[in-house]
Amino acid sequence: MSTEVRVPTLGESVTEATVATWFKKPGDAVAVDEMLCELETDKVTVEVAASAAGTMESIIAAEGETVGVDALLATIDTGAGAASAPAAKSATPEAAPTASKPASEPTTSVDVMVPTLGESVTEATVSTWFKKVGDTVVQDEMLCELETDKVSVEVSAPASGVLSEILAPEGTTVDAKAKLAVIGGSGASSAAPAAAAATAPAATAGKSIEDAPSAKKLMAENNLSEGSVQGTGRDGRVMKDDVQKALASASAVTAPSAAAAPRAPSVPDDASREERVKMTRLRQTIARRLKESQNTAAMLTTYNEVDMTEVMALRNEYKDLFLKKHGVKLGFMSFFTKACCHALKEIPEVNAEIDGTDVVYKNFVHMGIAAGTPTGLVVPVIRDADAMSFAEIEKAIAEKGARARDGKLSMAEMQGGTFTISNGGVYGSLMSSPILNPPQAGILGMHKIQDRPMAINGQVVIRPMMYLALSYDHRIVDGKGAVTFLVRVKEALEDPRRLLMDL
Predict the structure, then answer these.
(1) Is the domain defined by 106-201 classed in CATH 1.25.40.20?
(2) Which of 21, 49, 71, 223 is the most exposed place for a label (fewest CB within 10 A)?
(3) Element (H, E) at 372
(4) What is the CATH number of domain 281-501?
(5) 386, 478, 495, 502: which is the annotated catalytic residue?
(6) Which of 111, 135, 474, 495 is catalytic?
(7) Is it the case that residue 204 has pLDDT exceeding 50?
(8) Active site residue 175
(9) Does the reported pTM lie above 0.85?
């Protein structure tokens, strides 16, 4: 029989952890309370011990994988075969190699299942297989990559062997409990040594660190060899950004020679100059949700402008001291987050949502900060932003932004927002109308800070100005409330002391 090894309670408000290190592998004998693996959370490191003695049967969550509370990490075989494992270890030297060999190799087929996808995620699409049927695989080696609505999930081999069957080919949509493939143990015992011997020189010359699946896919598409790209990830792992930089460098080198070569005449053919690429699940979800927002909400946008003189002066005066004390840079987003939280208290309908025939008012602010990533727009949520200090907000924005760019945000980190801020100004946008992030009733659009002539006390002066846009659901937010909200944001930014006085 098998005993499940699950994620223990991580602590109050901690909902997920990352598998840092496995101290055992399938086939190893384990004793009760022996250390199996180590988990890392945002604050602490958690050790996971064996709850029963036996033999490590399979590892479900590989190193580097993010898991939720009570998620299945591994299974321990506590049957009769497991009980004899310790005895095999104490056999005579002559018998030791024979006795220990089967313990490290699977003797039956092992199913490759869809890993934990995250709260409320029920399906994923198989985007890329890195192995084909008949290939020898090593435990924890990357087999395929799945795409969900928000993130990409890497699937590792739960055991060593031969990939005997692929049940979900590329492009297949699978549910959260689906079987993806089968790793055969019988073929592994005979094929693995020959394959290892044939590939020994290549393995020695290469590296054992598995590159990011997105990087491997990009290298394959551009015919780049594994050793031609310098990795900057952990332990030299090649990331997608590394491949993109290598391609950019190659383009810069070959551009002059390509430009000098005469271009052969060709018959105009539009079809030959087009490229058809299937939309990712993330892009499909963005398209669907934005269109649903327009079709469902009575969306309207109102505009105002803010003089950024005081905020810029305050930031310039304290940015060095702020960085020295808090270890994070003082940006503009914390000022806007604070100003919006201040305005939402006065205009609560902007911080509400419609549920059937009810209006649900939120007595807290979970602030969504829209972030552009290479794969699309995501909105990580900073919870209870109204109770945070400037430093706490800046740290949260920096941490969420980095995780968004690396594609490491969990579904839980992008759910539950009550209001959203979108900063198109970082891309140079001067004016736009942001689309609501349903079911929220409001979203603030920030734009480029631009010096403009303004009439101040009868004189024309140059001031750093920014246009603000508030898109809102007119079903629950009236024009008066929307305009008042923007005015309060404007007042708080033009005189930041109002935030301290709660005015």
Answers:
(1) no
(2) 223
(3) strand 371-373
(4) 3.30.559.10
(5) 478
(6) 474
(7) no
(8) no
(9) no
